[in-house]
Amino acid sequence: MGKYSNGIDKIIRISCITLTVIQLVSYISGIFPAMQQRSIFLGFILEIALLMMIQEKLKNHVLDLFGIMLLIGSVAATAYVFFNWETMSYRVVSPGRLDLIMGFFIIASVIYCANKRLGLALPLVAMAFIFYALLGSQIPGNLKTSSFTIQRIVATLTMETSGIFGTILGTASKQIFVFMIFGSFLELSGATQFFLEYVGALLGGLKGSGAKANIMAGILFGTVSGSAVANVMAVGPMTIPMMKRDGFDDEFCGIVSAISGTGGQLMPPVMGTAAFIMAETLSVSYGEVIKAALLPGILFYMALWIATDCRLNHLGIRSKLEKKNSFKILKKGWFYFVPLIFLILTITVMRWSPLKAGMWSTALVVIVSQLNPEKRMNLRMIAKALENSARGAITVSIACAVAGIIVGILSITGLGLKFSTILLAISGGHKLFLMVLTMLAGLVLGMGMTTTSVYIVLSVLVAPALVEFGIYPIAAHLFVFYFGILSCITPPVATAVFASASLLDVSPVKLGISTTKYAIPIYIIPFLFVLNPALLMLEGSAIGVVAALLLCGLTIIALSSSVEGFFCSSYTKVERVVLFAMAMCECSQLVSLKIISNSVIVLILLKNYLSEKRARTMASEL
After folding, report:
1. How many Å apart are CA 446 and CA 456, to the nearest integer?
2. Of the candidates 508, 511, 495, which has an alpha carbon nearest to the alpha carbon of residue 118?
3. Most confident region among 79-88, 141-150, 265-274 by mean pLDDT
4. What is the C-alpha separation between 273 and 296, in angstroms, rounded?
5. 261, 308, 404, 469: most buried, per Cβ within 10 A?
């Protein structure tokens, strides 16, 4: 069995490199039409994923006959689509037997791989949608739909660009994949390690430097990672020991690690690769999406930073006297910032497409790596980066393929509109109530899903209800995306919390409850940016945007300190309750109420600060 396993490993490596090279050639030349480009991409992704599963079973001396059957079937089926896509498009209404057999293999392979790579959540949702199309005519009430045959469903999902081979898989095969390439090259060039070291040194003299290094590293690592769990597992082992040395207990270390790792998916420019799909869905430029997402992302990490400071003050931890030589580290690796700055400028200022910007930024990574003798990228390392790119894209690409099933069914049944209508009816026309319902839907539907699949499902099921109510489309989509991601820290399926708990050997259930409590200010941010679009830079002057940011910051300080029970000094129980209530008033649209609530918050914070200052003065006089 060992020699077969080694042989499969070689095939996987060759397939990964081949896929990446084909993608790069297609980006440059535009040689393939959409259906061909997506079918060859999916064919390689399914082949690699199935080979990995077969190899894993071989190591346990088990021959995976079902996996082998799906491997042969999926490769044959995607090749069939690649060579026959043009004539197939004319047979969608009356597909032939071979069309249906090949389509069945594609659907079965996608769902099987999704189950193995992503867990049960997303495949079960996809299967539920398929059964809904088959049996929807039997459902009473508003959700009733026309009856569709299995032939119609298979044809819709696999013979045209409205199902599995739709725009979502197209986005995965282009924009998302090019950033997977960029991330792989960035990591192998030594840039990720440099960023972590530099952030640790830069913040070394601050109180709670370990937690703050974790926060900053979460932001930086989030630019190249598409997973909250990956962020936690990459950054946590390096920063948790630092947090413990600062005096934080295991529970708070876990809270910071889980929340920081989750926030990387909300921070531009990559946003867990969902930013590209959001731009495609809304028919806006990628630059507009990351511009709108910037301040909410900053507010997310501001909330965590403030919560950390409140805990530090509560524990009485002061600033360190030691200073790290951050300039020395910067001098050794300053050039790693060049590709990131170039990427952001070309997308936001020069308006390049993500594809073009990603490719040139990747080339820049190879060039600047030559300045680091220890991590200089040679042909062997480039080949490894090409391989890692395809390996890293497998999970998100399969998620996009499964999402194509959901979108395909939605297109023929009209379920998305019906779901939105039901949400609007339940809300009774009250915007805040509708937003609460949407939040709950996002947290529930997002459980256990990847960043991209969370957004795709919520964007078609939930976001239209908010848009129909008159909310800016980009605000509605960011709202549902935000809460889909926050499911990573919301029990019971809090994947980022489970990852963080595994690093600290603490109870994930207890840690999940504590994390949710400390994340209360973060749960409020989406409500604030929907009710005040200036936070998304959608309207208002620069002064209006700054004012909105300051008021939101004040709300976050009030909530964070209320949860901790401490700002500069401890609060009374009454002060904590009043602070919390006044902060929640920021979700009101009554200007008079906001003026009163913000005035009360300022007075309580000022009283707390002066009380601590007075106590210090008295202590110094003794």
Report:
1. 10
2. 495
3. 79-88
4. 17
5. 261
Q: Which has the closest alpha carbon to 269: 335, 212, 343?
A: 343
pLDDT value of position 158 = 93
Q: Cα separation of 254 and 466, whole Å? A: 34
Residues 487 and 447: beta-carbon distance below 8 Å: yes
Let me know: does 548 contact 533? Beta carbons within 8 Å. Answer: no
Asked, as a colleague might, if the bond just before 464 is cis with ω within 30 of 0, I would say no
Coil, strand or helix at 65:
helix
377 vs 383: CA distance, rounded Å: 10
Q: Mean of the per-residue pLDDT values for the chain?
A: 85
Query: Do residues 489 and 222 touch, judged by C-beta distance below 8 A?
Result: no
- The span from the CA of 459 to the CA of 453, in Å, is 10
**Residue type (1 letter), 330:** L
Tokens 């709950």 belong to 440
546: pLDDT strictly greater than 60: yes
Residues linked to residue 566 through DSSP beta bridges, in sequence order: 570
- Lookup: tokens for 157: 């999902």
Distance CA(496)–CA(460), nearest Å, equals: 25
Q: Which two tokens stand for residue 68?
A: 């082998």
pLDDT of amino acid 225: 56
Determine the 3-state secondary structure of 570 from DSSP.
strand
Q: How far apart are CA 511 and CA 234, in angstroms?
A: 19
Other residues' Cβ atoms within 10 Å of the Cβ of residue 493: 18
The dihedral over CA atoms of 491, 268, 164, 173, expressed in degrees to the nearest 10, equals -130
Q: Quick one: pLDDT band at residue 205, thresholds 50, 70, 90? A: low
- Rounded-to-integer distance, Cα 546 and Cα 225, Å: 30
Extract the tokens encoding 105. 């293999």
224 or 90: which leads in pLDDT: 90
If phi > 0 it is left, if psi is from -120 to 50 it is alpha, else beta; for residue 471 that is beta
CA–CA dist 391, 383 (Å, integer): 13
The terminus-to-terminus CA distance of the chain in angstroms comes to 78
Closest to 401 in 3D by CA, of 51, 167, 179, 227: 167
Q: How sure is the predictor about 272, in pLDDT bands with cuts at 50, 70 and 90?
A: low
For residues 472 and 423, the model is more confident at: 472
